[in-house]
Design goal:
Largest sheet: 6 strands, antiparallel
Bound molecules: ligand MTE, molybdenum atom
Strand content: 35-45%
Helix content: 10-25%
Radius of gyration: 23 Å
Number of helices: 6
Strand order of the largest sheet: 1-2-18-19-23-22
Low-confidence stretches: 1-18
Structural class: mainly beta
Shape: globular
Number of strands: 25
Distance between the termini: 12 Å
């Protein structure tokens, strides 16, 4: 009884966290067609474990995180699509904005938005996930799925004619911010010039203004999937999502999809800016023949993943709903209370002819579970039969940073 009271309090807190104060569940009417539901009124149970509120230090960076219990449409409406912005929100106008393509190219190009829109149009359904999703206690909803429209990047790059030594492509955003780089050597910052301040190690900190930028190899950039994207779900990119133009790199984590794109520069070597070499770097502690080896890799391709979204109830009948993404999905399984894995039913992963870049929705019929608290976990298999790893997987467990957590997700629910 006491445990149930505790669970109930947690549930009320959970309700408050998703803006449904005092409720253990919410009733939604109408067909949840995205999950293959024939229709009728369902009650959605709120998970007992709710994400922390976004901490003050991150409220200017992260917004509109997905409320999993509210997941009901296969394409995330633009106004509900999460945003991550590390610097300022640039206010760009189509009239004065241009995309410059330069660096190691034979034929530098400067294109207006109208010129880009006049080029061949392509669309892709792509689920964009921040690599910090499920990495921090407040961050479990940094994911959304949209239809993105634009013109293929490859043709535009080809037209600029990269030189033979042009092997790396840098995508520059129009946003920028002050970044402090520590010189921890304690050798009084010898060699650092510019805006420097003493740090607590006897060395100097260097403060610079850094523009947002990400890069990829020319071969990766030339992928036919990449779009210079100007539309999201049928309307011009909203300001928060990169107006007037962003890179959409299907199959890559969010950070690679540079917003407010202003310049594409071809270079002769790796670009090691903040979001390639300092942030969004996965640091792992590997064991190699009894020796500890630290490895550093930068966040790039998306990883196979799934998560339970919500539990619904109709009368005494319960259904688990969820999503799977990060690779073309072949199947999803659900586990209750650490028991045996059961096959879920997949629904419309590929409405537009199929590229495997967007999430699949799935449901699993729970029947009538016993009253009380239960855990709900899911795992996805891709079409190469690779398995979404459990959290204790050696690769995941060796990470000392929180990026790229594609481990199986467990949620807790109270069946009344
Ligand atoms: N120019 C620019 N592009 C950016 C970012 C940024 O801060 N500036 N954030 C990146 C990160 S970390 C993520 S997860 C995605 C989020 O895209 P969204 O805000 O459209 O959801 O944008 C990426 N592109
Ligand atoms: Mo991100």
């Amino acid at each position: 009884m006491e445990q149930h009271d505790l669970a109930r309090r947690t549930l009320l807190k959970a309700g408050a966290a998703v803006g449904l104060a005092g409720l253990a569940s919410v009733t939604v009417a109408g067909p949840a067609a995205a999950f293959g539901d024939p229709g009728g009124a369902d009650e959605v149970l709120l998970w007992l474990d709710q994400p922390d509120p976004i901490p003050p230090g991150a409220v200017d960076i992260v917004a509109h995180l997905l409320k999993w219990e509210a997941l009901d449409s296969w394409r995330t409406p633009n106004g509900e699509f999460f945003t991550v912005k590390h610097y300022n929100l640039p206010s760009l106008t189509a009239g004065s904005w241009r995309l410059d393509i330069d660096g190691l190219v034979e034929h530098p190009v400067s294109l207006s938005l109208a010129a880009l829109r006049a080029r061949p149009r392509r669309e892709v359904d792509f689920t964009l996930e921040c690599s910090g999703n499920h990495g921090l206690p407040f961050s479990i909803g940094a994911i959304g799925n949209a239809n993105w429209a634009g013109t293929p990047l490859a043709d535009v790059l080809r037209r600029a004619r990269p030189r033979p030594n042009g092997v790396e492509v840098v995508f520059w955003g129009a946003d920028q911010g002050a970044v402090t780089i520590r010189d921890d050597s304690g050798i009084t910052g010898a060699g650092l010039t510019g805006t420097t301040t003493p740090d607590d190690t006897g060395g100097l900190d260097l403060t610079i203004t850094e523009q947002f930028a990400r890069s990829m190899t020319l071969a990766d950039a030339m992928s036919p999937d990449n779009l210079l994207c100007y539309e999201m779900n049928g309307v011009a990119l909203p300001p928060g999502h990169g107006y007037p133009l962003r890179l959409i790199a299907p199959g890559w984590y969010g950070v690679a999809n540079v917003k407010w794109l202003s310049r594409i520069e071809v270079r002769d070597g790796r670009y090691a800016g903040r979001f390639m070499a300092r942030d969004y770097v996965t640091i792992r502690e590997e064991q190699d023949a009894g020796r500890t080896v630290w490895t550093f890799t930068n966040v790039s391709h998306a990883r196979l993943k799934s998560a339970p979204a919500k539990v619904t109830r109709r009368g005494k009948h319960y259904v688990v709903h969820g999503a799977a993404w990060g690779a073309p999905i072949s199947s999803v399984e659900v586990q209750i209370d650490g028991g045996s894995w059961r096959r879920a039913q997949l629904h419309r992963q590929r409405p537009l002819g199929g590229n495997g870049f967007s999430w699949a929705f799935w449901t699993w019929d729970w029947g009538t579970p016993a009253a009380g608290e239960h855990t709900v976990r899911s795992r996805a298999f891709d079409r190469q039969n690779q398995l979404q790893p459990p959290p204790e997987d050696p690769y995941l467990a060796s990470r000392r940073t929180y990026w790229e957590n594609n481990g199986q997700v467990t949620r807790r629910v109270l069946i009344p």
